[in-house]
Design goal:
This protein is α/β, with parallel strands linked by helices. It is built from 6 helices and 4 strands. The chain has one domain: NAD(P)-binding Rossmann-like Domain (Rossmann fold, 3-Layer(aba) Sandwich), CATH 3.40.50.720.
Length: about 110
């Protein structure tokens, strides 16, 4: 794996998502997350260039994030309750804006 974190992330490694993630991994580095850590670890062990990461790290470091989840409710939960939209929005802001926001709101990141 390269010294830089993967720019592509994939969430949801079930039957369909696992197959898609394997295909993506064949073309370069990939960060993966699944609610079943064993699925993410297995793919990371089997495919060079794949790294299993916590959800917050995937959201912060990857430029593009794909999801393959069983229900639309799972997508909504991922984006809202687990804060993926917040992390993605935070990633888009300039460092000085992030520092100012953290100071004003008294928080430093999310704990999922």
């Amino acid at each position: 794996m390269s010294e830089h974190p993967p720019e592509i992330g994939f969430i949801g490694l079930g039957s369909m998502g696992g197959a898609i993630a394997q295909r993506l991994a064949a073309s370069g580095s990939l960060a993966v997350f699944d609610v079943n850590p064993a699925a993410a670890d297995a793919l990371a062990s089997a495919a060079p260039g794949v790294v299993a990461v916590p959800l917050a790290d995937l959201g912060r470091t990857c430029r593009v994030v794909f999801t393959c989840l069983p229900k639309s409710e799972n997508v909504v939960e991922l984006l809202t309750e687990h804060g993926l939209l917040d992390v993605r929005h935070e990633r888009q802001r300039k460092p000085e804006q992030r520092d100012q926001s953290e100071h004003q709101h008294g928080h430093h990141g999310h704990s999922w």
